[in-house]
Amino acid sequence: QKEVEQNSGPLSVPEGAIASLNCTYSDRVSQSFFWYRQYSGKSPELIMSIYSNGDKEDGRFTAQLNKASQYVSLLIRDSQPSDSATYLCAVNIPQKLVFGKGTKLTVNP
Amino acid sequence: GAVVSQHPSRVICKSGTSVKIECRSLDFQATTMFWYRQFPKKSLMLMATSNEGSKATYEQGVEKDKFLINHASLTLSTLTVTSAHPEDSSFYICSARQGMSGNTIYFGEGSWLTVV
Questions:
Q1: Of B42, B49, B103, which has the smallest distance from its Cβ to A96's Cβ?
Q2: How far B95 CA sits from the closest chain A CA (Å)?
Q3: Which residues have a Cβ under 8 Å from the Cβ of B49 and sit 6 or more positions away?
Q4: Backbone dihedral angles phi then psi of residue A97, each to the nearest 5 degrees
């Protein structure tokens, strides 16, 4: 099993809708989880970090973590065309940060 | 947030030559830096982890003699692609962990390498 798995998509949602991105991980000792956004040809930028079970909200973004299920998700409310990008889930496995393959999101005007 | 600067942002080199890419943490000390490469439309692949003052730890399949990593100070790590070949053309991205126990990792802007 790969260390971090994401549905590669592409995921397409209309403007104003909720986009839901999912990620599972294999290492139970992981304690830190991150969502990065990457525009084409650019470096990833950090959107959210989450360390505890439950929800964490920041503006239109909500990260959800369930350590028992080894599952982390990102919800984007009121999606905008500018949210169109690849979203990378990252898990802090001791000593390194491991990325999923990313989910490409397209928000249609 | 913290800033990580990478240089050069784009470089073209001839096959067989070596290229050095620098990664600097501008406003924090980075005891650990990471080097990734990314092919078009593919995910980030961790190449190596470098800790200040010690040898880098390379991921399986990454040639340490080809991709030389030096982390000589708490704010600077360099990646040298030696005897570059066209298949080394890629997007190379560094990232830095803030402090010894910091959880957040910040990325540089990335460097596009084209080997002709």
A1: B49
A2: 10
A3: A95, A96, B32, B33, B34, B35, B56, B57
A4: -110, 120
